[in-house]
Records
---
Amino acid sequence: MTPFRVLGHDRNSAARRGLLTTAHAAIPTPVFMPVATHGFMRAVPIEMVIDTGAPVILGNTYHLHVRPGIDRIDALGGLHAFMAWPRAILTDSGGFQITSLADHRRVTDDGIVFKSHVDGSEHVFTPESVVEAQARMGVDIAMLLDECTPHPYTPGESLAGLERTLRWAERAACVPTREGQLRFCITQGGVDPALRSRAARELNAMPFDGNAIGGLGIGEGRERMYETLRTHVPELREDRPRYLMGVGPPGDLVEAVAAGVDMFDCVIPSRHGRNGVVYTDDGVLHVKVARLAERRDPIDPNCACPACRRHSLGYLNHLFKTRDSLMGTLLTLHNLHYFQRLMQRIRDAIDDGTFDALRARVVAAYPPKVPGIRPRPKD
Amino acid sequence: MTPFRVLGHDRNSAARRGLLTTAHAAIPTPVFMPVATHGFMRAVPIEMVIDTGAPVILGNTYHLHVRPGIDRIDALGGLHAFMAWPRAILTDSGGFQITSLADHRRVTDDGIVFKSHVDGSEHVFTPESVVEAQARMGVDIAMLLDECTPHPYTPGESLAGLERTLRWAERAACVPTREGQLRFCITQGGVDPALRSRAARELNAMPFDGNAIGGLGIGEGRERMYETLRTHVPELREDRPRYLMGVGPPGDLVEAVAAGVDMFDCVIPSRHGRNGVVYTDDGVLHVKVARLAERRDPIDPNCACPACRRHSLGYLNHLFKTRDSLMGTLLTLHNLHYFQRLMQRIRDAIDDGTFDALRARVVAAYPPKVPGIRPRPKD
């Protein structure tokens, strides 16, 4: 049985509805995956993350490897038991994070040698060890080790990163899969259409369950990202889910869905929440602004999150001023609810044939001129 | 109708069971009140505080006056609506906090002139203005303005603080009470039995609904606090609840209950929780200690808190190491549940005639030699 089924297409774009079946959850797509890098959602009790309805959450192999360590997670019953998350888990391989976070990084054809940013100890990641680590953690979806060439890159660097990523994918394909675990490969090649085509062609032929698109949203600019998606996504197999890594704000989500992307993850709901920024249908709102201090209404009266069900904007403004972590908890929760509800509306709109109108409304509230949000590695 | 009824007495101590009826909750005593100084429980969503079962929570008039201000709370619907707490609220007057926190404090017979620690603005608290502020906030139980003489004190200072507190109580008694609001006076007099007796005698004759005991647990030492309670509590009217302010760890709670105290508040469940310390029947546990990193069991398998229902000690140890605020949230919640359950066990034990045995077990786990926990003003 193939784990992914396409259930329908939008008439006016490449947007599609799908269902990805994993060991711990059936995931309706398009889907947004909250990021729990270290095995927890920053500032939010896991039961409240469950209440957002998210069917799948993200962990990071690099971070979990350096702390608490794969052995420890294994001893504590695997990643699901460790973080008390009952639904699906996708772990990123950590290639991107090592590139931007670890000290004394040395990438060779064999793999990556690096020092932990936590305690300076030396570690080696290979294409094989990374899928083995994810097998031991028992996650639903494992990501291959890739090399994400940092932006700005020369054509030569971009080519080298892609070729290494492809060779590593071939090696990972030789490692037996843990039963019930899916494996996604990652395309690289920057914004070069020829490199992206080659990535798609070669990876489409390898035995993986999904295609992730790496190396976008890292500084190349929104228009070039959209352009790349428009040409690159159609090259990826129709029968596999397409996952745009590390993206993004609502405007990017609808544009990428329109290009045929099925899966997303991004730290902005929690990072922005902890900084006092909430997402609404009219764009973002900073709860610190003085004019909100007297507002008795919630962020959004139609939102079912704990902040909107109980608290006024005036109260949230008070929490900002007192600088208690409770503000980050409540605003992260609002944002997580907002992103889940947005994806539900996107799925409904594709089903109903009204995706065009929703896309236009979201882009109007979150226009591309808003500076791109780049994933920072510490999350 | 008198708001407080004594329901029963312990045979072997002065401990008693009671019921305090307030506008928003019937409060079984002995009771422990969690502290939400600024109108929220630090690090914990209010619905999770509600889930601890606490019938009453504490706010602080000084803190709420300087930020967000009584006018703002009034405009946002009163303190219950502001903080979304449906049960009873007791607000401390803030006399203690001004003494230890505000700048340029000047106490006169008329009241206290001080500068806000938030923005340096000048304010005046009088015995009248403080009860009026609490009436405007609509709390269930208002505390009078008192002067808590900081420890160490001379006999003369202690006497002066008491006399001012008594004069202020007389003035507050002349301010009409908001309908449905109870008012508690506060005894002072340090550890001097004669001063305490005088405080009790004079305040017993004034028209208040409860007697708070101030000026203890501020550095005088555990034995002197216990001694003072043993002689002072019996002097307080039997038909009014007795509230020991700012106390304390479990050992102090059972000893003070044995002396006849009915109500308590303390910041230690949240302050210690945020620092990685949890309360158990065997004493406190520091989740950071290395030997806990591999433990699959929770803090306490019999605890119903979100941390114990879902998470291993190994996971909590991981949260400590990553220094995320989620650890403070979960450990505060455990401690709040622990203190509520301890009070329930104390009430049941008084009912069942087994309070002696419970008291001995708690004192063994929390012996008096543990250094006293002094309230710090910022909470």
---
Amino acid sequence: MNQVRALVFDVFGTVVDWRSGVARAIAPFLVAHGRTDLDAFALADAWRRQYQPAMEEVRSGRRPFTRLDVLHRENLEKVMVAQGINAAAQDLDALNLAWHALDPWPDVLLGLHRLRRRFFLAPLSNGNILLLANMAKRAGIPWDAILGAEPARAYKPQPEAYLNTADILGMRPDEVCLVAAHNGDLRAARKAGLATAFIPRVTEHGTGQTIDLTAEDPWDCVADDFIELARRLGC
Amino acid sequence: MNQVRALVFDVFGTVVDWRSGVARAIAPFLVAHGRTDLDAFALADAWRRQYQPAMEEVRSGRRPFTRLDVLHRENLEKVMVAQGINAAAQDLDALNLAWHALDPWPDVLLGLHRLRRRFFLAPLSNGNILLLANMAKRAGIPWDAILGAEPARAYKPQPEAYLNTADILGMRPDEVCLVAAHNGDLRAARKAGLATAFIPRVTEHGTGQTIDLTAEDPWDCVADDFIELARRLGC
């Protein structure tokens, strides 16, 4: 890790608790549409299940690069139609902004403020610039720049997502470290030459989570949370 | 201005005093190369004179999009060779970073901190993401995201620079206001449909400045500095 000058972060799951935040926004939507028989967490999970297939259309080249706000909006409509909810476009537009207003895990702000003194900090998320910037503005996340799929024009885990981000930073890939709660993301980053740090988020998918509970490979750094990461990196 | 939700800013000249900052970095370089016969401000001006021609190669399509750090580095070499200075590549690399370490005008930080409460704030500069982010990190400029030529993949005053920025922001062009000290930049922004605000910076080019001393068109807002801009926009 000695040569690392920038830390770039996976966001959904690693920095913010997307599942609770999305469910919190879905709950009043269900009340407004008279569907309190449905579970908001189950719908958040259903919405999220459409995430990878939608990006795969772009990764495969079947669709030109399309920012995540657009994919989220299409996916939301599918999920609601499948439940027989025929909501007005403006209500779906509003609910789509749930992804802009997610809360960080409790260790994130203190950890990032400490890390920021020594490192250049940016998200490397599949979220688009506006989504990540609105989230940061609302929660006070101290990014130095908003990077990720949109400026890189590629969705993780494609190598271009990692390599174009290092290029924008004017750094060699090994000067950039990806921090993530997902072993698969870290595997792709390592393959592209980045340094890797794993932080477990064992309730990202709820209390019954079975994946990404521990580091599955010898990552360059493993820490319990962002505060311990800061401590281990001398910040 | 009532519909405006984002303020985007020209940076070189409008937010930061590039001429003093670049001259400040050139001065010790001249000492180190035994050329104290040369004037650091004159060299800063000479370096800046290469700026538009270098971008014009990209705007014309003769060259693919190339970020400003690369153009600045090439231009610096030309300027130094013209003076008979044969500097080491690493010394030119270091001097090129002068553009990452420019100081804001004295009203900027207070004005932006006030404007930030009500508006989404971002640079809309021809500077690249890393340059603008390093500048902001050093000076404490509170941008919500780093926008501009690199994410828009177009150099001002091409319409795509303004329109792609509005698109990234998920806003109509008239919901975005360009703040600039340059009438030409504002003319191009207005043509693209953006709102416009003029702030004079009458010593950008030194005490003998003859251009952009006043607003030349009826811009949507004209203010003496960023603090007055904040006051006029109710922040």
